[in-house]
Amino acid sequence: MVRLDNITLRYRPNATPALNGVDCHLAAGSFSWLMGPSGAGKSSFLKLLHLAVRPSAGQLHVMGRAIHTARRQELPALRRRIGVVFQDFRLLPHLDVLENVALPLRIAGRGERQLLADATEMLRWVGLGERLKARPEELSGGEQQRVALARAVVARPALLLADEPTSNLDEAQSRRVVALLQQMHRLGSTVVVATHNQWLAEENPAAMLRLEAGRLVEHG
Ligand code: ADP
Fold it and tell me: Is 50 touching ligand 1 by the criterion CB < 6 Å?
């Protein structure tokens, strides 16, 4: 699903690399925790995987495509098969919850009736079937995070990435979000979750990727 070979990522020439010589292989259908201190490169690792940045050196393959040599025009189609849950939700404030979740399907050109049905089903799945018409600001942090999760998975991504999806949530809400991520994993998505949350990772044993100062120090 994902292969990094000796990947280095620098945001500016000559800057200290955010990722340094990273080798890693994520099998299709795997679930991985991505851990490490603040500044270790977790967000950068996820940005590479959702094709928001390109490696400065090394080889990156995502879903069989060589990203390091791919032409820019090839990336949007691949990106649509990747779902991302951002730490700060990134919901659109002027749209209701249903329209936020429907948006990826609109962009993909799905028909109106089907996309509303699919978005409604996803919102039911995350327990928000009664809040379709609410604006994001009317929801709690945990509810907003579940909307963000519904939006990330509504197009049935092969690869699902979550960047600190529980950092703003209490324990009960955190467990609920992780249970939903695990359900997506059971349905076949490859899942990578960056977290600081040691107890959550211990409660839910899975492969562990640990970054320290841009280097992958654990991969098992
Ligand atoms: P983490 O998610 O583990 O906190 P990041 O991937 O955000 O780590 O950051 C890794 C390093 O890259 C840090 O030194 C950070 O300052 C730097 N960095 C991250 N994003 C940018 C950016 N857009 N421009 C320049 N430097 C960045």
Answer: no
Question: Do residues 46 and 192 touch, judged by C-beta distance below 8 A?
Answer: yes
- Closest ligand 1 atom, residue 164 Cα: 2
- pLDDT tens per residue, range 8-48: 999 999 999 999 999 999 999 999 999 999 999 999 999 99
- The answer to whether 98 and 124 have CB atoms below 8 angstroms apart is no
Distances (CA, A) of 104 to 73, 96, 119: 18, 14, 10
Between the CA of residue 186 and those of 34, 140, 158, what are the distances in Å? Answer: 19, 27, 12
What pTM value is reported for the model? 0.95
In angstroms, what is the span from residue 170 Cα to ligand 1's centroid? 26
